[in-house]
Amino acid sequence: MTSSAASKTPTKTEPSPIITINKLNKWYGKFHVLKDIDLNVNKTEKIVICGPSGSGKSTLIRCINRLEVHQEGSIIVDGTELTDDVKQINEIRSDVGMVFQHFNLFPHLTVLENCTLAPIWVRKKSKVEADELGMELLTKVRIPDQAHKYPGQLSGGQQQRVAIARALCMQPRVMLFDEPTSALDPEMIKEVLETMIELAESGMTMLVVTHEMGFANKVADRVIFMDEGQIVEQNDPENFFNNPKSERTKLFLSQILNH
Amino acid sequence: MADSTLKFKKLPDRDPPENTIGWIAWIRDNLFSSATNTLTTLIFVYLFYLYIPPFIEWAIINANISGTDRSVCDANKSGACWTFIKVRLEQLLFGLYFASNPEQTWRPIVAFSVFGMLIFPLVIDKTPHKKWLLLALLTLYPVLFICVVYGGVFGIPVSDTGQWGGLLLTFALSFVGIIVALPLGILLALGRRSEMPIVKMMSVTYIEFWRGTPLITILFMASVMLPLFFPSGVDFDKVVRAMIGITLFQSAYTAEAVRGGLQAIDKGQNEASMALGMGYWRRTILIILPQALKISIPSIVNTFIALFKDTSLVSIIGLLDLLKMAQNSSRSLDWNGYDIEGYLFAGFVFWIFCFGMSSYSQKLERKLDTDRRAE
Q: What is the distance in angstroms between the Cα of B273 and the nearest Cα belonging to chain A?
């Protein structure tokens, strides 16, 4: 594979990529969703991906833990290339946390059980250990008192924070966020964003698909703008928001910032 | 600016108006809300008046229960002849073998009592260690049933299964049908949704074949055709053949009921468990099935109830289930003419079992309803 060079340990103190995406192409049937995507994500880097709906941003991050299968190019996560090998995929998935737009909590399990299920069954932790870890992370997202309730009894914002805690319980190296605040009432967006900001400050590597430009401005090391399945432009937030280079980016920013 | 701030003031909660709550309001809203509604109510009250009191008079007030032969009933034709049921009870419940060998009657009684002792704590909410009880019901109980009812061990004489009958037979056929068909049906439902084409094709073929064939046909086949595939001299037990036929048939129906539940699960559930690194069987057993089975409880129980009643079709291959036993008994010389009592009794026993299953499924549904918000 052409990309194997990228995963070698760097000789200098240059940032080490934890995710390397090379010439990624994906189709849904005949529809070409992702076109020649190249992207390196360094450890502790925070990347915000934005773009109009249908631009392929969600598909891109879903390819990283293989919820979507790509047809061309390569994705290397933490030194392992994503192939059809089920065991390898599960190993990568257990190291990559994901937070979904619709939370996708398990409604038949309590909040704490949601958090401890994968640590017990995938990480083979004891129940005591997993409970301890679960409570620790629920405390971190500030809902330890809801631990024994069912997800249906929680507000949307609380549910999304549980989803974050659930992903963190696997002690992932990377966290993927797929529009984490899009399904929330305005009053609840803030509490979720605050949790994400705290997580970013703790040094987690994060890829976030979102339209929360305030969050991007505050947290992102890099903002990526996608359209028509391509990366149109990427830059640090200051340059991205203040001097966007392409016309497409300018149009998009004017539409989402001036409403 | 300070002057113009609006103060938000919470209004006190009030009780709803007097005439919209309570039983008078309920009767008015539900029974007499319009002219047609009122008319329907009155017609039904009249019909109840017409038929219920005479029935109670016949079935309870004037009924005969004393004596041991038909002379009492023949003398008083204005009431039901429950003497018939009383005298033939053992035969109706346990079949010919256990009824005609009084020293063996304890065997089905033990089998039914143990079943009751296992099932009642399972139904009650607060019982601890339900998992173990259920496991005992599914594994130890069938073994006990075979030892006690079939016999052949511990010096218990073997009972010919062809002589099993009545409720005992109905129960044995349904129990096997239900506990074997459920896991089989779950596997078939999963197979039907599999991404592996061969597995999927085989599951679909199986389900559609057995679902498209009438149970009567299957029972005939099991009874007449199956022996043709075995060397002569190997006499495959008739009851076992019926059990196999019923189980194959039932598993296809259970599979479709379970599939309905599987389809209702949001694909986000699967994705979320995939994203946590869980493999297929873990996702299926820990996340998907608990939710899917909960959704399909009503339709699964529906198929169980249908099966319980359908077992009476085994009469066409010469087995005497509860219904056939009631019919035969009321056509015997001793009790000729009292078939209404026989059918009523059989219907009542069927109803108790079916209603029990139905109530339990409703209770289970409410208990598992964790999605609703706390009150």
A: 8
- Lowest-confidence pick of B169-173, B224-228, B307-311: B224-228
Q: What is the pLDDT along chain A (259 residues), one digit of tens a residue?
A: 444 444 444 444 556 789 999 999 999 999 999 999 999 999 999 999 999 988 999 999 999 999 999 999 999 998 888 888 888 899 999 999 999 999 999 998 999 999 999 999 999 999 999 999 999 999 999 999 999 999 999 999 999 999 999 999 999 999 999 999 998 988 899 999 999 999 999 999 999 999 888 999 999 999 999 999 999 999 999 999 888 889 999 998 888 876 5
Size of interface A-B (CB pairs under 8 A): 75
Contact A58, A179 (CB under 8 A): yes
Of the candidates B269, B290, B371, which has its C-beta nearest A104's C-beta? B269
Nearest-by-CA chain A residue for B287: A106
Assess contact for B343 and B327: CB atoms under 8 A.
yes
Listing DSSP states for B160-212 in one string gives PGGG-EHHHHHHHHHHHHHHHHHHHHHHHHHHHT-SSHHHHHHHHHHHHHHHT
Put simply, the answer to whether B272 touches A108 (Cβ < 8 Å) is: no
User: Judging by DSSP bridges, how do beta strands A174-178 and A205-209 pair with one another?
Assistant: parallel
Q: What torsion do the CA atoms of B81, B85, B86, B89 make, to the nearest 10 degrees? A: 180
Chain B residue closest in CA terms to A119: B276
Look at B276 and A105 and tell me if their CB atoms are within 8 Å.
no
* CA B211 – CA B20 distance, rounded (Å): 50
Q: pTM for the whole thing? A: 0.81
Tracing tokens 């049937």 back to the chain, one arrives at A29
Question: Who contacts A92 (Cβ-Cβ below 8 Å, separation ≥6)?
Answer: A65, A66, A77, A78, A80, A82, B277
Closest partner residue to B275 (CB to CB) among A67, A107, A108 is: A67
Domain boundaries, chain B: 20-61, 84-100+160-368
What is the CATH number assigned to the segment(s) B84-100+160-368? Answer: 1.10.3720.10
Q: How many CB atoms lie within 10 A of CB B15?
A: 7
- Report pLDDT digits (tens) over B18-62: 777 788 888 888 888 888 989 999 999 999 999 998 888 787 777
Instruction: Please report the pLDDT score of residue A11 as a whole number.
Output: 47
In this complex, do B368 and A97 lie within 8 Å of one another by their Cβ atoms? no
Chain B positions touching A121 (Cβ under 8 A) are 278, 282, 286
> Starting from the edge strand earliest in sequence, which strands make up the sheet with A46-50, in order?
A96-99, A174-178, A205-209, A46-50, A222-227, A230-235
Nearest CA in chain B to A115: B276
DSSP state, residue B55: H
- Indicate the DSSP class of residue A208: E
Longest dimension (CA), chain A: 55
